[in-house]
Every structure is written in C-alpha cells, then in structure tokens.
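step: validate -> pass
step: tokenize input -> pass
step: predict -> running
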Amino acid sequence: MDGDNRRKELLQILQNEKQPVSGTELAKRFCVTRQVIVQDIALLRANDKNILSTNKGYVLFVRNMESGKCKKTFKVCHEEKQITDELYTIVDLGGGVLDVVVEHPIYGQIMVDLIINSRLDADSFVEQVRKNKTKPLNELTEGVHFHTVTAPNEAVLEAIEQALLKKGYLLI
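step: predict -> pass
step: emit ->
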C-alpha cells in the first residue's frame, strides 16, 4: 500500500474510533513501523487534520464533537500526589478534562491534550506518568496549572468549580 492510501485509511480509522488508537496498534494494522505512523500523522496534521496525541494514542478531534457541551478553564494548584483526586473530582461530577496548560517563565505556554472523561482515563494517565518515571507538567510551575473542562451544562461546571474550591485546588 502506498503512503497516500495508507494515510486515507489511517484517517478513516481515526474518524470511526471513539477511543484513542496507539501508534503501535496502527503500525501493526498497516504492517509498517511506528515511526512511519508518526510521519503519516505529521503529514495529515500538515493538511489541516486535527489529530491529537494523548497518552493513550491518537484521536481525531472534531470541533462539533464538543457541541452541546459547556467549557471552562480552571486555574488550579496541588501536589503531584493529589492529581488523581483532582481528576476524580472533575469526572465524578460529570466533567471531562480536555487538557493541561502551564505558563513556564522561560518557555511560555505549554499545553498537552489529556482527554480524561472517566476514573479509568484518570488512572491510565497517572499510571503512564508513574510507569514512564516522568513528572507531570505542574512540577515546572510549583503545582500551578490550568485545565479546560467540559460539561453537559453550566450547573455541572459550577459544581466542579465549587468542589475544586472546597478541596483547596482552585486558584481565584
């Protein structure tokens, strides 16, 4: 299969999948190396395909995918050991965490897509941090970071805000 056809099929897979697909899985499907998939993703992105890289794999982000949902950005601060509790607080109330952003004094804004919608997603993220022996982004800014949170309505966002405030995570 040539590169153009592989990229068309790769895009079709991402359009049909509701969950992220790992580069390794895509490489197996196409009988190519993971590096070839990384290059294909880069080429698709260069052609205005909004493909996000998450800790669970690639996902095609479609703007209307979030239609009907409310969004709010929360500025929070906590220690690394409180990450799971923070994420559980958001998803248990019906929210989803799209990303994490830090404002680094030298590098400026650093943003990473998370797409965490459940405790399972939160556990997977925390496990990836642990397994890879890395530090979360908030370590760069003494715990201060931002999350874009989605919810089905404003009342859920308000409940999330109040819960984060009560736990001492929310910075105002």
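step: describe -> The mean pLDDT is 89.
step: cleanup -> pass
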